Amino acid sequence: MITASRTILGLYHGYNANACVLIDGQPVVVVEKERHSRVRHAYGSSPECVQDSLHRAGLSIADVDCVAFCGASDIDTDYGYDVPVSADARTRFPATLGTRLLSSECFRETSLRVLDRVLPAVIVEHHVAHGACAFYTSGFQESLVLAFDGLGDFGRSCLIMRGERTQLDCLESVPLRIGLAFRKAGTHLYRLHGGKGFDAAGKLMALAAFGEPRYLAAARLFLDHVDRSTGGRDWLLPEMGNLRPGALSDLDSQRARDFAASLQAVASAATLALLRRHVLPGDHLCLTGGCALNVIINRDLLRELPLAALYVPPCPHDGGLGLGAGLYLRSHIEGRQSNIDGLDPFLGLTDLDTVRRSELPLLANDGLPAMTIADLGRECQVEAAVRLLVQGEVIGWCHGRPELGPRALGNRSFLADPARDWMCAHLNKRIKHREPFRPYGLSLREENVPRVLDTAVRSPYMMIAGTLRERWRSALPAVVHVDGTTRLHTVSRRANPLFWELLAAFEAASGVPGLLNTSYNLPGEPIAETVTDCLRVFCDTPIRHLFVGGQQLSKC
């Protein structure tokens, strides 16, 4: 039995494949394969991520004590690693859906060959790893945990757990297919033939605010039967007639907008009904899995449930499963607390603050446009950025190590003045190349939240939608969605001091209490990781100024 591991390697093999390193229970590096390959939602084993993660932590494979692995929907799957399986081990990891999981059935011990070394290992069930990623980084001593997504191991889509100190016990497995419904509806209605519909689900969520929930019965039918539907979904939508493929790409389609609103309403209602069976007054709640990226569901849970606090990690999607598996091994299996009170999201590989001016031309591709490069100290950099922002410029802001997950948190960001009424359309059309109905998030210093929004909630990872107070809806048009909400990012001085200083300086200069913040990447690509990635985005977009590490780059 595995009892004490100082260094744990966490691995996930699937879409959004990733690797992480934990030392004495603390995550020191987490990297998704997509940041290496530059292919969004990259799938499969990733030895290069393992090597680079260990190198970043100052370790080699010889220093690893145990591996925590996630990513198999049955134990005979080809993991891309060598996994010897004994007959006894098979009994520890169930291959049936069931309605209840016991803790002893959530993992199995085995051995795993990684980088030519055979190591003791545990394989952790998909939704249990999701739950562990959230609970063990929340700082809560006790919490209800909901992990819900498209599909995980053995056809599961939703698992309710309760965490207490080091233990994470499963309560109920429910066939709630919210993630699959959003993915299939989005893929069908956007007429997306490639990929798995990850991005289409997010587009559907954004479009929902433009519609009215007129097709609730059809949306409930779709949600109830989506796992059994194949090919066209018209038979599931009798109240809507023939909702044509590609309808969501056309804002003139009121039916498409109303169906998106209906599916969103049904998803929120179903999640609330499920949690009301388990939530106690004053409970803490951890949300995780791909559906935890739905900021509208998260907002509705906060409004309707008697919660003391709600926590969503920065990587609730499958990109956090390696971390979750590692934390489950450390805490639940070995019985040792990690004492993480809110996860530091800046755990990527590349630290841009160490980049020097002399390195920039060497790292750039041929054909770099003419530009000036200025060395700036911290204070001068904030002053220069504020001058540009108040003039209406969009800037690139790339510092330190990159953030985990899909949301920009101030280390790999495009930033802009949210008070400009043309800024959202400008970003969608010329820089991000997105549909015109897609909204942008607002980064605020924590102390500004009560006067700007109708709630004092913290949202350090941009995982909650907040409703702006009436005066700010007209004052911040670039970050206000049609329903009066914004995707909220709260910034503390402790978590990101440089970004906090920039927000404070911008407010002092303009009177605007926050900044529009969106991910620094090209269309169809993951967030930039390296200096080369940052320069390529700079060259291939019309922005004129990039702050990277200690330098300001400006196109001539």
Automatic annotation (TrEMBL):
Pfam families: Carbam_trans_C, Carbam_trans_N
Positions of the Carbamoyltransferase C-terminal domain: 387-553
Superkingdom of the source species: Bacteria
Domain annotation Carbamoyltransferase: ranges: 9-215, 254-326
MF terms in GO: catalytic activity
InterPro entries: ATPase_NBD, Carbam_trans_C, Carbam_trans_C_sf, Carbtransf_dom, NodU/CmcH_Carbamoyltrnsfr
Similarity remark: Belongs to the NodU/CmcH family.
Protein known as: Carbamoyltransferase
Species the sequence originates in: Candidatus Accumulibacter cognatus
Lineage: Bacteria, Pseudomonadati, Pseudomonadota, Betaproteobacteria, Candidatus Accumulibacter
